What does this fold into?
Amino acid sequence: GQQLNQSPQSMFIQEGEDVSMNCTSSSIFNTWLWYKQDPGEGPVLLIALYKAGELTSNGRLTAQFGITRKDSFLNISASIPSDVGIYFCAGRQNTETGTASKLTFGTGTRLQVTL
Amino acid sequence: DAMVIQNPRYQVTQFGKPVTLSCSQTLNHNVMYWYQQKSSQAPKLLFHYYDKDFNNEADTPDNFQSRRPNTSFCFLDIRSPGLGDAAMYLCATSRRTATNEKLFFGSGTQLSVL
It folds into this structure.
């Protein structure tokens, strides 16, 4: 089956630094979603991407849908302590009308921010 | 306000004692999913309902069952929990469309098996 590889697996950064993480696949996806998960909570949707090459921002977060459709990138600018958490990418391939489309999740990037 | 609500937030059960987790949604979404997430891992899809149609993942154990009595509610039943079933269980919903479909998660139920 498809696998989504996220890198880095974890990162320690200082408050104020910019962060970049990416997600790559051996298969083509038609939708990319980025989620953040805090400890003991469910994933919260950050950004959704629907077109190859699309660049979308949500506050300090910017994500891009790779041209090849096999990758996506998430950038966080000027990180703050509340950015701590696990970031998951998730990809979806088109499915037939009348069926639910299922997400393939990445392996996650654990972000820790130090003061 | 929470749109996908899971109860309880924490559930402790005994080995082999049936347990039911619940999920409700105010989004009127036609698809509801149940995921299992173990520590430091990505969520793993167990099954989903597309309207009333139940769709099981091939590798979901028979020990896991689900019910969806109406659009708003969905239940996860674990018939005989084992120690390996201790995990966070996440409910998610979406509205199935051809484009721009998004998945929204609840806060999860953390299940402990003693």
In short: The interface with chain B takes residues 31, 33, 35, 40-45, 48, 50, 86, 88, 90, 92, 97-103, 105-108, 110 of chain A (CB under 8 Å). The longest strand of chain A covers residues 85-92.
